[in-house]
Structures are given as C-alpha cells and as structure tokens.
Amino acid sequence: MRIIKLNAIESTNSFLKDLSVNSSLEDFTVVITDEQTSGRGQMHTKWVSEAGKNLMFSVFAKFYDFDILNQTYLNFAVAIAVFEAINKLKIPKLAVKWPNDILAEKKKICGILIENNLKGKYIDTAIIGIGINVNQESFPTSLPDASSIKMILNEEIELENLLKEVLEQLKIYTDILKGKDFKFLEEKYLSILYKKNTPCMFKDAKNVLFMGKIIGVNTTNGKLQIELSDETIKEFALKEVSFA
User: Fold this and answer.
1) Over the range 42-80, which residues count as b (16 or more CB within 10 Å of their CB) and which as e?
2) What is the edge-to-edge ordering of all strands in the sheet holding 200-204?
3) Are 81 and 170 in contact (CB under 8 A)?
4) Domains of the chain: residue spans and CATH
5) What are phi and psi of 191, to 5 degrees?
6) Distance from the CA of 128 to the CA of which of 3, 63, 111, 204 falls in 20 to 30 A?
7) Distance between CA atoms of 75 and 137, rounded to whole angstroms?
8) d(C-alpha 37, C-alpha 51), whole Å
C-alpha cells in the first residue's frame, strides 16, 4: 500500500484520477490531504471540510473481470467498511443512509464518492473517495444535518489511527467483493441501512409527500426500494427521493 500525503489540493479523487492516467499505480494507492479546496460529493455536490480536522482521502482499487452489473456490491462493500471502522469508536445510532452516507444520531458524519473506470462491460479500476468529519466542531448553517465524531463523543480522535482502521476494513471488504460473496455483502449492508423496515414519510423529486418503508436495494441498478402504503413497491434513483 502506497500512501501519498498532501498539505492541500482541490480534490483527492481528481488528483488520483490524473495520477492513474499518467502513471502505473499499484492497487490500494492512497492520496490523503489536510485540506480540500474543491471537494466533491454525490451528484456534483460540494464537500465542505475544515483544514486539518478531518479525514479526506481517496483509494485507487484495481479489479479483474468485475462486471459493471455488479457495481452496487462495490458500493455495499465500501459503505460497510467505513461503517465498521467508525463503529469501533462505539458511536451511538450509527447507520448507513442509502446509498453510502454514514449517519450518527441522524446526522451525517461521512460521505463517499466512487468513480469507476470501465473497460468494456467490466470495472477495471475505481477511485474511492471518502470524507469523514472527525474533529471539526462547527459547520455552516447551510449544512444543518452535518456533524462530526468529536461533536458526538466529546473527545478528540487521532486521525492516523482512524485512517489505518478504515483502510484495513476497506481491504477486508474489497477482498470479499473480489471473491464475489455478493449475498453476504447485501445482507450486511441491509442490516445497517438507516430506517430499513421502518414506516417513514418521504418526499419525491416533485416534492410530493408519501408514506412508505425501505425494504431493500435493487442490486442490478442500485435503486432504493420503498414499499408504499398500498403494499406496492417503487424504486428510486439518487436524488429522486428523500426523507420528509
């Protein structure tokens, strides 16, 4: 494992992507920075982080004959790995919010962005970007649902130790993924999925409110499956549904 440490950079995912194009990288090359000036989240959102307080890093992963149709299991593996690493800190009410945010006490403490490089119908490599709010003690009012590990536990966390734990878990679960134990990954992911089988109020992309409960994830397309009050099942892509 090669770890590249930088003081400041626009985006660890972008840096690692450029590096992979211009040089031959070994599996599990990691880029970590103290400060990201243009950190990215899902669907072109911005990741905001205070310099030197949090973990912001990306991991380069290589795959062999890994069909694009199974990419949902990659998301499962990464989300589980980060959950397991953070869970060792004994944080209360920890859960994965679909597709791969990590929540603690209903507040977001981690975001994940996975970018795949394809060769035909296979995922050749992936860049796994992870941002964990660790020791930051305040967030902009524009991010009312953001929190950090320190805000929840009231104690400073050693960044290096947490990074080491996340990388160890990531190696464990990507090996499970490469071994194609998809059933295990799905069952594990669903067991830690936020609000699974709990009746909730949701809001669709047109701001229409409806009652339903999360029952699973379509492993072919990654869409969230919600059972409606009339017992029909509807699937939603990212940004098509939110908790009301």
Assistant:
1) eeeeebbbeeebbbbbbbbbbbeebeeebbbbbbbbbbb
2) 233-236, 224-228, 209-217, 200-204, 241-243
3) yes
4) 3-191 (3.30.930.10), 200-243 (2.30.30)
5) -70, -20
6) 204
7) 29
8) 9
Find the angle CA(136)-CA(128)-CA(35) to the nearest 5 degrees.
35
Segment 176-233, tens digit of pLDDT? 999 999 999 999 999 999 999 999 999 999 999 999 999 999 999 999 999 999 999 9
For the chain, the maximum distance between any two Cα atoms, rounded to a whole number of angstroms, is: 54
What does the pLDDT read at residue 37? 80
Structure tokens at 160: 């290096």
Confidence class of residue 46 from pLDDT cuts 50, 70 and 90? low
- Give the CA dihedral 32, 185, 161, 16, nearest 10 degrees: -10
Task: Provide the CB-side half-sphere exposure for 180 (13 A, CA).
Answer: 7
Would you say 49 and 110 are in contact if contact means Cβ atoms under 8 Å apart? Answer: no
User: What tokens appear for 150 in the block?
Assistant: 């320190």
Q: Cα(first)–Cα(last) distance of the chain, in Å?
A: 42
- Provide the mean pLDDT of the chain: 94
Pairing of strands 101-104, 107-119: antiparallel
pTM passes above 0.85: yes
